[in-house]
Design brief:
Elements (H helix, E strand, L loop, with lengths): L3 E14 L3 E14 L3 E5 L6 H8 L7 E6 L2 E3 L3 H4 L3 E4 L11 H11 L6 H8 L15 H13 L5 E5 L7 H16 L3 E5 L3 H7 L2 E6 L2 E7 H6 L5 E6 L2 H10 L3 E4 L4 E4 L5 H8 L5 E7 L3 H8 L35
Parallel strand pairs: 3-8, 3-9, 6-7, 7-8
Antiparallel strand pairs: 1-2, 1-4, 4-5, 9-10, 11-13, 11-14, 12-13
Helix pairs in contact: 3-4, 4-5
C-alpha cells in the first residue's frame, strides 16, 4: 500500500503590490504525491508552480488551503519533518570563494549530518574530482549539481527539485536522470519540475500539470497521454489525392500535406491500410502519431504549438536529447 507524502488541497495565494496591484498566483490548487513516486510537476512561468513549492516549504504564506508533508501539517509542523526533506527551489546561491567541499561540510555541520556524507554526495552528482575548486569558477550546470548534492546530504525521504537539469549538457541531464531513478529505487520520493518535457516523460511515472494557478491534469504519465490520443496516423501513398478521397469516403478525418496525410479517427491503423489496399492503392508509410508530454502540455496550458511540427511518432522518447526543450521564459519568484 502507498501513503501520501505530499498533500495539497485548495491552495490559494495572492500577491499584492502598490505598483502591480493584486495577482492570484495559485487558485484552489490540489496535488497528491504518493510514497515512492517520481512525480513530475509541470507548468509554464506564471502558472503558480514555484509559488506552490514555496508555500509547501514554508517560504511564503498561503492565503487558503491545506498542506501536509510526510504526514505533518505545513507549514506549522514542518520543523518536525525538515530533516527528512531535501529541496531546491529556484536558482541555487553559494559563496563564490568557498569550494564545493567546504560549502557542503559547513552545511553538514550545521545540520548535524556526518561530514563523511560530503564525499558521498559529491560523487553521486559527479563533482568529486572538482570538489576543492572555488564555486565562483563553476558553470551553471556544476552549481546545479552542487545544489542537488546539498539537498541529498540528509539522506532525505522526500526530494523536491525545481529545474534540476538547468544548465546541464545532454550527458549531465542523463546523469541527473540516472540519479533520480537510483534514488527512487531506494525508496526516495521525488517531486521534480522541469521545462525539458521529453526528460520528464522518461523519468517520471506520475505527472501533475498546473495552468493559471489551477490543476489542469494529473495521473500516471501513460494515462495522461492516453487521454489525449486522437488516434491519428501519418500516411504516405503513391497517389495522395486518391488516398484522401478514399479515406474521407470511409468516414475518416483527413488533413492533407504536400507529401503525406494525417488521418484521424482510426484507433486501428489497419483500417487505413485495408481501405486503401482494397482499392489497389498501396501504402508506402503508415505510422501511428502518439501524443507526447510536450504536445499535451501545450494543449492544456493554452500555449500554441509551432506550425508544421508533427507530434511524436511511435512510442515515448528514450533520451533527453529527443524532443525540444521548451523555453517558457525567465523564471521569477511567484512564477
Amino acid at each position: 500500500m502507498t501513503s501520501a507524502v505530499i498533500e495539497i488541497e485548495g491552495l490559494r495565494k495572492t500577491f499584492r503590490s502598490l505598483r502591480r496591484g493584486s495577482r492570484v498566483a495559485v487558485d484552489g490548487f490540489d496535488l497528491l504525491v504518493e510514497a515512492g513516486q517520481v512525480h513530475g510537476f509541470l507548468g509554464p512561468n506564471g502558472s503558480g508552480k514555484t509559488t506552490t513549492l514555496r508555500a509547501l516549504l514554508g517560504l511564503v504564506r498561503a492565503d487558503q488551503g491545506r498542506m501536509r508533508v510526510l504526514g505533518a501539517s505545513a507549514p506549522e509542523q514542518l520543523p518536525q519533518v525538515a530533516g527528512r526533506v531535501g529541496a531546491i527551489v529556484e536558482s541555487p546561491q553559494f559563496f563564490g570563494n568557498f569550494t564545493a567541499y567546504r560549502t557542503l561540510r559547513l552545511l553538514a555541520l550545521a545540520g548535524g549530518v556526518p561530514v563523511t556524507r560530503v564525499d558521498d554526495v559529491l560523487e553521486q552528482v559527479g563533482l568529486l574530482d572538482r570538489a576543492h575548486e572555488r564555486v565562483k569558477g563553476y558553470s551553471l550546470g556544476m552549481k546545479q549539481r552542487l545544489a542537488v548534492a546539498s539537498a541529498l546530504l540528509k539522506r532525505p525521504e522526500l526530494l523536491i527539485l525545481d529545474e534540476p537539469a538547468n544548465g546541464l549538457d545532454p550527458a549531465g541531464i542523463r546523469e541527473m536522470r540516472d540519479l533520480m531513478r537510483a534514488l527512487a529505487e531506494r525508496g526516495v520520493t521525488v517531486l521534480v519540475s522541469s521545462h525539458i518535457l521529453a526528460e520528464i516523460q522518461v523519468i517520471c511515472d506520475h505527472v501533475t500539470i498546473i495552468s493559471r494557478g489551477r490543476r489542469a491534469a494529473t495521473g500516471r504519465v501513460a494515462e495522461v497521454l492516453a487521454g489525449h490520443d486522437r488516434h491519428e496516423c501519418l500516411v504516405r501513398a503513391d497517389d495522395l489525392a486518391r488516398a484522401e478521397e478514399l479515406l474521407v469516403a470511409a468516414g475518416l478525418a483527413v488533413t492533407g500535406h504536400p507529401d503525406h496525410l494525417v488521418v484521424g479517427g482510426a484507433p486501428d491503423p489497419a483500417l487505413v491500410n485495408r481501405t486503401l489496399g482494397e482499392q489497389g492503392l498501396w501504402v508506402r508509410e503508415l505510422t501511428p502519431l502518439r501524443p507526447d508530454l510536450e504536445s499535451v502540455f501545450l494543449d492544456l496550458t493554452g500555449t500554441p504549438e509551432p506550425p508544421g511540427v508533427p507530434r511524436q511518432v511511435g512510442g515515448t522518447a528514450d533520451d533527453a536529447t529527443v524532443g525540444r526543450e521548451i523555453d517558457l521564459g525567465t523564471r521569477e519568484v511567484g512564477a
